[in-house]
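Annex B.
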Amino acid sequence: MFQLLARDTGFVHACGHRGHSIGAPENTIAALEATAAQGGTSAEIDIRATADGEIILLHDDFLDRTSDGAGLASNLGLAEIRKLDAGAWFAPEFAGERIPTLDEAAECAAKRGIGLVVEIKEERRVDAFLDALVALITSSDIAVHAVFISFDHTVLKALKARVPNVRTEGITHARHVDFVAVAKAAGLDSLSIERGMFRPEDGKALHDAGVAIRVHVERPTVLARYQAVGEDIGATVSEWIEAGVLDSVSGDDVGFLVGLGAGRK
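Glycerophosphoryl diester phosphodiesterase: predicted structure tokens.
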């Protein structure tokens, strides 16, 4: 079972953001495989619906940035999307990589022993999307291996009302007055907090309430700019990991996260 709290796992998750997206095309099976190869223990992925209601991995509304397709993914059926190349844009060696379904991603993650942090990106046909997601969850064991996350906490609350055993994580981009109240309002199991908005005392309060915490860390090239002017953000994150105030650290470079102290010991 994919456990969220470090006190249950014995380690802080090293979570690949859209998979190990610094080394493989995001939201692909290759990115999930690379996450595991780099020592990652979970992978954040994004999901949307096709025109025929299938759930696929894709961050953007549009297909053009991460594939050789064009237009809205929601206007194409799964059969058409399966024909697209989702790897060549990243590097020639990934040519032929496809946009996977959530089912396929879950199968890969289970095989490689990593959890899935599944971000719901659908904004248009939310009710139909939830119907499809509930059907997938209730007909498989994905709920054991995943936590479902979103900026829209009302969607997460609706999902949990329909599938009570599902774990949910709310994304926040602000330092709320009371993070625990935010989590309780939507029945969340975890919160994703921006690195710049996180404080250790917030982590302690959330842990006391039984709520897990994920913090996202920028790429090493970004952190290097801060380090050059005397601010070692990586060292601060390592201190948080050591202090036990985090449960998951996500980023594009999984190997870098492992170097900070995340991942299995």
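The longest strand covers residues 42-49. The mean pLDDT is 97. Further annotation is deferred to the next reporting cycle.
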